[in-house]
Amino acid sequence: MALLKNMNSKLTRRGLMGLTAGAGLAACTAPESITGKNEGVLQAGAFAHGIASGDPFATSVVLWTRVTTDMDGDIEVLWKVARDSKFNDMVNSGTVTTNAARDHCVKAIADKLKPGQTYYYCFHAGEAVSEIGRTRTLPEGETESLHFAVVSCANWQHGYFNTYDAIAKRANDRPYDALIHLGDYYYEYGALETARLPDRIHEPTHEIVELNDYRQRHAQYRTDAALRAVTAAMPLIAVWDDHETTNDSWRTGAQNHQPDMEGDWDARKQAALRAYYEWMPIREPKPGRVRSDIYRNFRFGNLANLTCVETRLTARAEPIIVESYIDEISSEGGADKFRKEVLYAPDREMFGADQQAFIVDNLRQSKKDGVTWRLLANQVIMGRLLTPDFSPYIDEASLERIEQDWPEVRDFLTLSKHNMPLYPDSWDGYPVARENFYAALDAAGLNDMLVLTGDAHEFWVNDLTSETGQKYGLELVTSSVSSETLTAYLGDGTADHNLLVTQKNPDARYYNATRSGFIDLTLTPKSAAVVMLNVDTVLSRDYVLSETARFTVRKSGNTIKAASPKGLTVTQRALFHGIG
User: Fold this and answer.
1) How far apart are the C-alpha atoms of 522 and 541, rounded to whole Å?
2) 45, 194, 290, 398: least surrounded by Cβ within 10 Å?
3) How many domains does the chain have?
4) For residue 67, what is the domain's CATH number?
């Protein structure tokens, strides 16, 4: 970080004013391509962490960058927006003052824009000029199609961000309306004891806890060329999951937070949130809302409504560690007692009343307005998934590999025959909260959610049903940008494991945990095209992008269903159709 910090400190108010006074709304210097391949601009040092846009509305969008400097005083940064990449057709401009108190981050609301339009933007600071970014406003009225890339879980230490690189390159041929990021944008862990890649070691090397730690981790991730490229190519709509604070977080604590060693939980949480709002192209909370209330709504004309939800810090109860109940569950009648008294405890909240009302109200209004698709940007798996008996299917070598990261895996294996939640940290660990949410949807006449989910490092297609069998929509789960998939632990046995889980769970239509990748989602008034794409490796920058599976989502009565699967094996296809 010292190298980046000292690359350019020649940024002054006089230098900026001299530039702007002489040039007015002069065009930015164009890079070689919109995906940030012009490293010459970055080498100048002033904008070493690239640029980004996000939280688009119909007439405005958030623009973001950071000035790389060791100056102590204020720095004024000029931003520009134009209809063309040469900046001949200027739309708006303005200045933002930044300083060390903001970690020299720059956020501006570019307004006076037109709905459903592509714009180009850049920044000036002193004599330095950023690369050029491309963004897009939300459409209004009749909308023929929308194109999204859906991602989650980018772990610097697990590999290169080839998924981001692939999305940025695809955007040159067919632009995306937004990159939907479902959380785990970065990871809080310290350096791995055994590095997978010598050039991918976390900075700082210790687990991040304080404000400067979180800032440094954000800064490190934004030195990645692929991340810079993808955020320069399209607007970002992001929600956090747990690792933006620390692993398995909830309202009043986290699995990876020990107060006796790492201090007050609320202080750590607020440090993480402050850094997040500094470093991400996200709008500040509305008056009366706190930083943890990141839930918000986006309307894409008459075609789609996207509601981003928050399932970690607003209301979530402490996750259940099922393995800690092994003696009780293993006793006669113990599993049923555990479900009734622990798992189904009525105070196991997820959304909280205010957020749930916000979500249902926005979904209800979108239906009233005749919007075709109702999307949820959701962190953890919502579909109902229980464990089959894994004991006969996981060998000792795999157990030993898993045990290094998860010491309780043998207890999990013992408990799996009792049909426990597959992921207790997901909605299966909060079944009453899920049923209450479904009941609220039912009361509002809403049964057609298309839920986009991250967290699991796996591809899924899940029907969303209540415990009485009522359907409320469909869930699409994306794999990871780079975080390890089950293949790292189960090797060639991963595909068989996936088939077993699919077979034993009626709501699971498709499951593939073999590779990292993303979902390419296209919406039209009649259907949604879902393409699950994977990268063959994250351990080399040379990768091959290929199609994992493809589905079509269509209306079916008052709900939606997945159909027309492509790329599935014979067994996967049979399980998708509920055969076998």
Assistant:
1) 27
2) 194
3) 1
4) 2.60.40.380
Domain of residue 55, residue span: 1-137
Asked, for residue 57, whether it belongs to a domain, the answer is yes
What's phi and psi for 33, nearest 5 deg? -155, 165
469: in domain: no
pLDDT digits over 353-393, tens only? 999 999 999 999 999 999 999 999 999 999 999 999 998 88
Q: Which residues of 42-76 are buried (b: 16+ CB within 10 A; e: fewer)?
A: bebbbbbbbbbbbbbbbebbbbbbbbbbebeeebb
User: What's the pLDDT score for residue 580?
Assistant: 59
Q: What's the predicted TM-score (pTM) here?
A: 0.93
The CA distance from 369 to 304, in Å, is 11
Identity of residue 264: D
Report the chain's C-alpha Rg in angstroms: 24
Instruction: State the average pLDDT for the chain.
Output: 92
CA distance 269 to 186: 15
Query: Which residues of the chain are under the pLDDT cut of 50?
Result: 1-26, 30-44
| Contact predicate 515/534, CB 8 Å | yes
Own/partner pairs, 202-206, CB within 8 angstroms, 24+ separation = 202/156, 202/157, 203/1
Asked whether residue 47 is assigned to any structural domain, the reply reads yes
